[in-house]
């Protein structure tokens, strides 16, 4: 506890006597200061015990004393010490009455007690209080460290809540509550998700104070992490502002949780190398070797059905589409929603990594995340449990991006730098990892060509091949293949395109196709011979019939 007027009055060596303001003696004293100025207020900071001898004061003038005392109270002075036997044998009644009227504690200082003794007593008490706070802070640090080592973040939060006589909560990178202490604080912590998301938008380290409604607690929010983007956040709720000892405890918790949530770069790099080696072995058809290398790092991930995710930034996919000569329409996502969904700083693959890893951590799942390549060739490969939180989180994030797109890019192929293209495989086991990887790449390719954010391979098998004909390259092929027939029909010399479509749709049945066209079957036979002559191809060839049918379907979608 800091020194108070009461502790000074009870100091046996000072011999102070209370003459007014007996009910305000429990007020803390920040410092003791002597001043004989008629107006010392400009030099006060608040919380001082002012010591005077009334050398320049008209201490017997009631009106003057009322103005003087009123000024001191307005400046935050907590007490007035008057030395008797120097300029006045006793404290003038005008000053006593003015102090009593303003409820300002007035202490009588005997002549044998120098002001220096009072200043030393206040200084010693402040130093002792600071020493106690530092000692308590170090003790709290040891206690928190012990719980962090033995019980993890949950144990650390429990110890911190006890230290500050309140509650504490830990949030992950997405703003979701990971743990709270005590348990009843879960609902309170959940209501702060929006505040945590706003905190994440600021560079780490960052903090803010959230004042709750009337009769509710005061909450401090602190970002955790050493990088540009916070890895997590800590909330501490208390009934009042934190004291020095509690502040030490909170700072210790921030340091320990940062060490817990922000793994060293060398450790991250080592885990990524192991993950990359495990993935290579799986793709090479060596699941047993992959399990041996992984050990317990990925839990039972390799012993149950999993999904393979392959993701690229849209700018990378755009480059690949340009190389293939295709044109892909694309729309731009709202920046505000991208931030809310977890995207930021122009690093879509990094944002997806955070979302997948956070979801897996909350669900207690193992997940293998392997970055591949750098710069324009960068992509992300994720191996996650089928039906698990990580797969769901990636799909939900992609859906959020898809839903927020506005505008289109139609003249030139292009993608927005801060978007993703994601392909998801069907469920597979370790022995079929290579097939799952190929499925994810196929889904990624389809997503890239359709201008989609997310495509699942199972959707391709369950759907139709006809949407694929919308590709510009297919349309160009179809136009070229059928151009001569369209030019023939444009001269009015026959309806070869319609006749060809009817004949192919009837699987080469002359009577049925002729009936559809309303012509004689011999007329239809003549037209089909003209098609063969103009195209220089035989309709007896199944491949030719297939190409013509696909060309007709592609041009009919325009």
Helix content: 40-55%
Spans of at least 5 consecutive residues whose pLDDT stays below 50 are 317-345, 406-418
Shape: elongated
Mean pLDDT: 82
Binned strand content:
15-25%
Give the number of DSSP strands.
17
**How far apart lie the N and C ends?**
82 Å
Number of helical segments with 4 or more residues: 20
Q: Structural class of the secondary structure composition?
A: alpha+beta
Strand order of the largest sheet: 1-5-4-3-2
**Rg from Cα:** 40 Å
- Biggest beta-sheet profile: 5 strands, mixed
Describe the structure in your own words.
With 558 residues, this protein is an alpha+beta fold. It contains 20 helices and 17 strands. The strands form 4 sheets. It has a 5-stranded mixed beta sheet. It has a 5-stranded antiparallel beta sheet with strand order 7-6-10-9-8. Helix 17 (496-505) crosses helix 19 (521-535). The longest helix has 50 residues, at 115-164. The chain is elongated and about 140 Å long.
